[in-house]
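Go through this pair.

…
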Amino acid sequence: MSVSIKKLQLFEATARLGKLTTAASELALSQSAASQALKELEASLGYVLFERVGRDLVITENGLKSLPKVRQIADLLDSLTLANVDTMSGVLRIVASATIATYLLPKLIATFVKIYPEVIPEIHIGNTQMVIDYLDKGKASIGLIEGPAAHKNLQITLWQQDKLQIFCPPGHPLAGKGTISIEQLQQQSWVLREQGSGTRAIFDTAIEQAGARINLAMELTRQDAIKESVKAGLGLGCLSQLIIADDLNKGSLVVLESPLNLSRRFALVTHKSSHHNTLTQTFIDYLTTL
């Protein structure tokens, strides 16, 4: 069986980028050469790695099983390349859920890049489910999520503490009291994050544990849209304390204390079968010592 490093790199890049043309460009290959190389790799392995659906390439089940091993080979090669190099360099691929990516990650990345100026961060932002999908498909080396999650192929390590807060506009009837009961929770309309987000999962779990049911007015994927909708009087909101801190200081939103358990832990997500290269492991160590 003849399997070259270049062909394995092409497979990994195609799985990560979702398009053979983009992967070929990253590896400085022509479209025809990349297509031929992928066919030769599949012939050598004895199974199909991708299926064409319309104009897209969709990785097969055998491809998904092989991808962690191929990424491990790539990481080992990176480690070998950097073994005798004093400077840390390369692309650091991170996928993070929205709150972390917006309110925590920029400062963390800025400090890390000051220490290692030759590192190039590549950051993707989505909800918790997207983070899990990216890690599972090998599109990123490190994931950061806000809500509870489990996956057979992924290692999920608890990281930093956070708390969700229920809030309303200052003119709301409950604003003067600063509290909300379970009965009042069920009487209000709500503007919340979408299903699949960590924030929504924590809120739904807390409501279920309280034996309550709420009136959902809107689901939105953007935190700023939720805050503006609450300010406009469309309902109550529930977001991380990190997101609404400035609004509380300005007096444009008011926190309502409730009996709900809205504490949570951010988590670090990595692939169980991946051997982390030097750059990835250094960033993981940096995060876990904060």
Observations:
- The first strand starts at residue 50 and ends at 53.
- The chain is about 45% helix and 25% strand.
- The mean pLDDT is 89.
